[in-house]
Amino acid sequence: MSLLERTATRYRGLRCSAIAAELPDLLARAEDNAMSYLAFADLLAEQEQHSRDHKRLAGNRKRAKLPADKRLEAFDYRHQTTITKRQVNALLDFGFIDNRENLVFIGPPGVGKTHLAIGIANKALDAGYKVLFRSALELVEELEIAEMKGELKKKLAQLTRFDLLVIDELGYLPMSRQARYNLFQLVHSFYEYRSLILTTNKDFTDWGEFFHNDNVAVPIIDRVIHHSNIFILGGESYRLKQKTTG
Ligand code: ADP
Ligand code: MG
To answer: Where is the AAA+ ATPase domain (predicted)?
Structure first.
């Protein structure tokens, strides 16, 4: 075994797989640039760190389960004029996540609520945050299954490992009392601890009705509203526009 092979094996054993893989190339760069010992030591560390960051972000992206590749860059503010690019860009320093605030996008179908939610989630992933996307339907089912197994607490603990949970299309489906209770538990465990993005077709004024003015639901709404940035979107459905113009 050559010295180079032995050294690469050592790095691999120390779980520095990026250094191990790139060692010949890194050595060549050091020689070509007549690097100082310190600069070379730093180059090795940088290589490993860079590769680990990259893997971490790729893992976060996979776990996020974004349902479609929607980018903010593709969002047309000439069509959707009830929110401005400035308002959306202001969210991208992710102060709202750091301050454990929520975003709520309210509006009729097709106005871009889910697009914005996924677009923001994408940027949050790029910035290193752990994100999870769920439709309200999926989430309610997931909580129900956990609850039936007596594992609701465990499930909530899993969910709060994410910095940001997107709940899409809240308010479309009728929910049992148990489902509302489970959702309340979720909102409770996220409150002032993690961030939510909600999209909904219901104005908050309708939510009492949606939740049957229930003594479980009203606190849910209060908690979501408290510490929320609420965006009320209107206008024509983009789907309809595409049908008629293209
Ligand atoms: P909502 O969630 O409000 O029902 P979506 O975000 O799913 O609406 O939008 C419907 C479709 O139209 C999606 O394919 C989305 O990418 C697209 N869309 C909606 N609004 C815009 C917009 N302003 N610019 C570009 N695409 C848009
Ligand atoms: Mg939607």
So the answer is: 99-231
Q: In the chain, what are the domain boundaries?
A: 3-62, 72-245
Whether ligand 1 lies within 6 angstroms of the CB of 200 is answered as: no
Question: Which numbered atom of ligand 1 lies nearest the CA of 78?
Answer: 23
Predicted TM-score (pTM) of the model is: 0.91
**pLDDT tens for each residue of the chain, 246 residues long:** 899 999 999 999 999 999 999 999 999 999 999 999 999 999 999 999 999 999 999 999 999 999 999 999 999 999 999 999 999 999 999 999 999 999 999 999 999 999 999 999 999 999 999 999 999 999 999 999 999 999 999 999 999 999 999 999 998 778 888 998 999 899 999 999 999 999 999 877 777 777 777 777 777 778 888 889 999 999 889 887 777 654
Token pair, residue 227, equals 């510490």
Nearest ligand 1 atom, CA 116: 6
Atom of ligand 1 nearest to the CA of 76: 24
Query: Is any atom of ligand 1 closer than 6 Å to the C-beta of 118?
Result: no
> Does the domain at residues 72-245 carry the CATH identifier 3.40.50.300?
yes
Phi then psi for residue 127, to 5 deg, are: -80, 0
165 CA distance to ligand 1 middle (Å):
20
